Amino acid sequence: DTGVSQDPRHKITKRGQNVTFRCDPISEHNRLYWYRQTLGQGPEFLTYFQNEAQLEKSRLLSDRFSAERPKGSFSTLEIQRTEQGDSAMYLCASSSLGGLTEAFFGQGTRLTVV
Amino acid sequence: TQLLEQSPQFLSIQEGENLTVYCNSSSVFSSLQWYRQEPGEGPVLLVTVVTGGEVKKLKRLTFQFGDARKDSSLHITAAQPGDTGLYLCAGNAGKSTFGDGTTLTVKP
C-alpha cells in the first residue's frame, strides 16, 4: 500500500447530474476524512469516519451530499443534483487512531460542473 | 471556530534566497502540521510539531512552533525552484483547520 488513492482524478458533469467519488485510505488507518478545496483557499473539512461510523459532518455538507464507509475501508462521497458551486477539488485523507493522528492526503478528485 | 492566518499570501523570490512564511492563530493547537501542495495534487505532509517552542529541521526547511502553541513559522534556506508550491499549515491533526496557504514561486 503506497498511500491514499482517489478515483476518478477528474470529473466533468452537467448541472443537475449526480456524481460519486471513491477513496481508498492507507490500509491500517481507522480514520478517513473528506475535504473540499476551491482555488486560492485551503482545504475545508466536510466529514470524517472512524471505521464505519460517520462521527462528524460540517455544516458545509448540504443534504445533497452523502458519504459512506460501509465496511470501514474505502469510502464514497456522492453529490446529488450538482450545482456549479460544487466545482472544486475533493480531497480524501486518512489517519491512524492513536499517536499524532496526522492526516495523509490522496491526490484529489477535481470536479467541474458545467 | 479556530482560524489560521498565513502570511504572506504570495511570495516570489530568486533561487538561492532565504524566506520565512508564517502561520498565526488566536487559538491554541495541540499540534500543527505543515503541508506542501502542487497544482492539481493533494497536500503532502512535511512535518508535525507538537511541543511549544519546538524546532524541527528537514534538510533546508526549518519549522518552529510558538511557545504558546498558537503560531508557527517555516524558514527555507537557499530556496530552489523545486520548492515552488502552496505551503499550508493545519491545526490539530486529523479533522484539521487549514490556513489558506502561502503560494511560493522560486525563479531560477
- Using only C-alpha atoms, the radius of gyration of chain A works out to 13 Å
Helix fraction bin of chain B: under 10%
- Roughly how many Å apart are the termini of chain B? 40 Å
Order of helices and strands of chain A: EEEEEEEEEEE
Topology:
The complex is a heterodimer of chains A (114) and B (108).
Chain A: E1 5-7, E2 10-13, E3 19-24, E4 31-37, E5 44-50, E6 53-57, E7 65-68, E8 75-79, E9 88-95, E10 104-105, E11 109-113
Chain B: E1 5-7, E2 10-14, E3 19-24, E4 32-37, E5 44-49, E6 55-58, E7 61-65, E8 71-76, E9 85-91, E10 97-98, E11 102-107
Quick recap:
The complex is a heterodimer of chains A (114) and B (108). With 114 residues, chain A is an all-beta fold.
Q: What does this molecule look like?
A:
The complex is a heterodimer of chains A (114) and B (108). With 114 residues, chain A is an all-beta fold. In chain A, 0% of the residues lie in helices and 49% in strands. Chain A has no helices and eleven strands. In chain A, the strands form two sheets. In chain A, strands 2, 4, 5, 6, 9, 10 and 11 form a seven-stranded mixed β-sheet that branches. A four-stranded antiparallel β-sheet of chain A has the order 1-3-8-7, with no helix packed on it. Chain A is globular, with a radius of gyration of 13 Å. Chain B is an all-beta fold. In chain B, strands 2, 4, 5, 9, 10 and 11 form a six-stranded mixed β-sheet that branches. A five-stranded antiparallel β-sheet of chain B has the order 1-3-8-7-6, with no helix packed on it. In chain B, a hairpin with a 5-residue loop joins strand 9 and strand 10. The radius of gyration of chain B is 13 Å and the shape is globular. In chain B, 37% of the residues are buried. The mean pLDDT of chain B is 94. At the A-B interface, strand 4, strand 5, strand 9 and strand 10 of A face strand 5 and strand 10 of B.
